[in-house]
Amino acid sequence: MDNLEVGDTKTSVQQFLDGNFTTLDSLELVDELLRDAESTHALLGDELRAAHEEKQSLLKEGIDLVERVHNESLKFIDVHSEVVGSSTDENVSAWQFRDGTEAMELVAKLAAELETYERLGESKKYIDVVVDMEQAKEHVKHNLTKDPQSVLAACTRTFEILAANGSSGQGANDDIDLGTTSNLKEYARQSAKQIWDDAEGAAASAQSKALSKLGWPGKMDMSSTAAVVAFDASFSMLLNLDRILHDSRETLSRNKMDLRNGKTSPLPLEHMARAVDIRMRYHFESARETNRADKPEWWLSQVLSTLRSIVPFLEAHVQWLYDGTALERLDMRNEFIRLLLPIVRRKLAHDRPDYLKMGMVIAHVASELADFEHTLQEVYFFDGPSVLQELLSDIELLAAWIEAERSSAVKSYMDTIAEPGAFDLVYDGDVLGADDPKPSRIAENVVLLVEDIAERYSVVPSCMHQLQLLSTAQFPIIIALVEDVEAEIDEFSRISLAFIRDTTAGIASGAATTTAQSSLITQLGRLASWYQTVWYVEEAACDWNNSALYVDMWAAVCRRAQALGSSADPRDWREDCDSWSEEDRKLLDSQTELISSAENDDWLDGGIWERSIGTLRELKQRVLDLISRAVNKDVIGQMRAYRNKSNWAFSSTGVDAANDVSTELGALMPELAVLVSSLASILPFTAFVRVTRLLADKMDTLLVERVACNHTFNAQGGRQFAKDVSALSQVLFASAARTAFKSSTQRSLPKAKECGLILSCGVDGAASPGVAGSGMVLSLEEWTPAIMDPATDSQEAMLVLKKLGINSLSLEQARQLVKNRADFAPANVFETP
User: Fold this and answer.
1) What is the pTM of this model?
2) What domain of life (predicted)?
3) CB atoms closer than 10 angstroms to residue 611
4) Angle made by CA atoms 639, 644, 646, in degrees to the nearest 5
5) Alpha carbon of 682 to those of 26, 492, 525: distances in Å?
6) Is there a contact between 580 and 613 (Cβ–Cβ < 8 Å)?
7) CA separation (Å) from 803 to 202, 704, 709, 772, 785?
8) CA 275, 277, 278, 279 torsion: positive or negative?
9) What pLDDT digit, counting tens, does each position of 791-802 carry?
C-alpha cells in the first residue's frame, strides 16, 4: 500500500515536471517553487491547528450552554411545581440533548413559560399584600375604640408588611423586592400611612375628649375618675404608637416616610399642646382685638398663665404615666414647654411685618421675651433654646430696631434742645449738694435717653449687636450735645467781654454799675449752665463706663483687638463696626480671658465711654476757663482806679477810719461780694474754688506788682494797703461753704498781705506803737540791714524774711518794698546793685 502510494507520487511529480518545465531555464525555477510550496504548506498547517483549537473552544462553550440550559430547566421545574403542582417527569434531571438545536428550542419554550409563571407569582404576592393590608385596615377600623391592643398589633403587622414590600430594595430582602412592582410599593406606603393616621387620630380624639372633661388647657379638675381613666388609656395608646414608630424607623427611612413631620417630642404631649395652640390662634392670630403686634405681653402672659395651670398636672400625673413606659427618660414639663415655643415663634413670624414698620416695638418685644424666658428658666427650669436669640438673629429686624432707636433719640434730643430753656437747671440749688452736678433740661434728657436705650438693648444676647446699637443710637446723642455746647461757646466768644462791662471809661453812676453787673452775672449764668450740663453728662458717662453692661462690652472689644494684633487699639472699634462679619461676632461674643501684655496695659483700664468722657472733660474745662476769664477781666478792670492811686504817703489825718477801705475800692467791694456770692450759687463747689483761686492769684499779682512795688508808701499808707488787702480777701472768700475752704482763706492774697506787713512796719522802736496790729514784731531799723546789704547771702536773707513771716515774696520784691518806704532812709542802708 505504501509502495503504491510512493510510486503514484513519483509518477505525478514526473508528469508535473514534464508538463511545466520543458526547457532548461524553466528547471532553474524549481528551487524557488519548492520554497514557495513549503511556505504555503507551513501556513496551512498553522491554520489547521487554529481551526482545531477553535473547534475545541466551541465544543466547550456548547457543553457549558447545555449545562446552563439544564440548570434553567431545573429552575423552571421548581417554579412549575410551585404554581401548578409537582412535575410528572421524575427523570427530568437526567434529560439529554442530542445537539444544541434541540437544547435551544427547549430553552426558548421554557423561558416563555417561566416569564408567565413569574408574572403569576408576582400577582400572587401582590394579592397577598393587598389582602393583608386591607385586613389590617378593616381590623383597625372596627377596633379603634374596642380593642386598642389589637389595633397596636395591626399597626405593627402593617409596618412589617411595609418592610417586606414597600422599600426600594436597598437593605430589604432582595428576593421579595424582585417580586413587587412600583404600584405595590406605593400601595403599601399609602396603606401604612392610612392605618397609622386612623389609629393616631382615634387615640388623639379620645385623649382630647378626656382632657376637655378635666379642664384642659385651663385649671385641671381631677375629680372625674372616668375622665382620668380615659386619659390614661389614650395617653398610653399614643405612647405605644410612638414606640412602634421608633422601632420601625429604619423601614420608614428606607421608604422616605415621615409620619411625625420631623417632630421628636412624645406623641401624646404633641396632641396635648394642640389645644393650647388652637386657643392662642383664636385670640392672638385672628381678627380679634387681642391680636395686637404692639402688645406682646398679652400673648406671652397667656402662655405663662396656661403653664401655671397645667404644670402641676404635667409634673405629677403625666410624668408618672410616662415613667411607667420603657421609653427613654424625659422631663414632661420641659418637653411640653419645648412644644409651646413653636407657638411663640409662629406668633413672632405672624407679627414680623408690623415689627418692620414699627421698629421700637421690637425693643418692647425683646424685653418681654427676655422676661418670658427668664421665667421659664428660673421658675420652670427650662433648658431649651432661646427664642429671643432666634428673633434678633433676623438682620432686617435688628436693623429696623437700630434705626428706630436712632430716629427716636434724635427726635427727642432735637425737641428738647429747641426749647428756649433747654439749658435751664432742673432743680433748685438746695436740692443737690454743693459737690453734685446740677442737670439742665437738655443734660437730663441726654442722660435719660442714653440710659433708656441701654436698658432696652441690655437683653440683646449678642455683644456685637449691642455695640452696633451703642454706636448708632447712643454715641450720636453725646456728639450732638458736644457740638451744640461748642456752638453756644463760639457764639458767646464772638461777643467781646468789653460789651458786658465797659471798664475803659469807668462807670459814673450806681445805676449804671448795677446794670453792668447784672449783665455780667447773666452771662456767667449762661456759662455756668453749660458747665453744669457738660459736667452732669460727664459724671453719668463715668458711671456708665463702670457698669457691668459696658464693662463687658469693653472686654469684648479688647478681645477682638487682641485677636487682630498687638498694635490694634480697642478704642478704634467704631471705625469698622458697620462692616463686622460673623467672625467678628464670634470674637466679640467669646468668653476667652484676655492675656495682658505690656503694650496693652495702657488701654486695658479704659472703657467704652473713655473717649466721650475725655471730650466732655475738655469741653467742661473750656467753659470753666471762659468763666474765669470773664470774672478776671471784670474785677481786674474795676481795680484800675485803685492801682493808679499814687498817694500812699500821707499824714495820720489822711488815714481812713479803722474799718474803712480806700475810697477807690468803695464801689468795687459790694459788686465783688455780689459776684462771688453769685458764683457760689451757680457753680459747683469745685468749680467755684478754681475760679476764685484764679481770681485771687490775679488780684494778688496786681496788688504786688502794680500797687505795692510801684508806689511810694509811708507807714500810714502801708497800713491802709494792708486794710484794703484784708478786706478784699474777706469779700473774695466770704461765700465759702466749707470749713476746709474757710481755713484756706488764711493763705488768700498771700503776697499782698506780706507786702502790707513790710509797708506798714514801724521805722524805729518809738514808731512801733503807731503801727500796732500790723503783725511785724521788729522795726525796719532792726531787720533791713540783714536783707539790704548786697554782701549778704541770699539764702541767709530769705531765712531772715521767713522769721519775719515773709514766705511768698522774693528777696528782690522785699528790697523793692523797703525802698518804697518814703519815711525810712537810714544811713546804714546799702544800695543794692
Assistant:
1) 0.72
2) Eukaryota
3) 15
4) 135
5) 152, 18, 7
6) no
7) 113, 21, 22, 19, 15
8) positive
9) 888 888 899 889
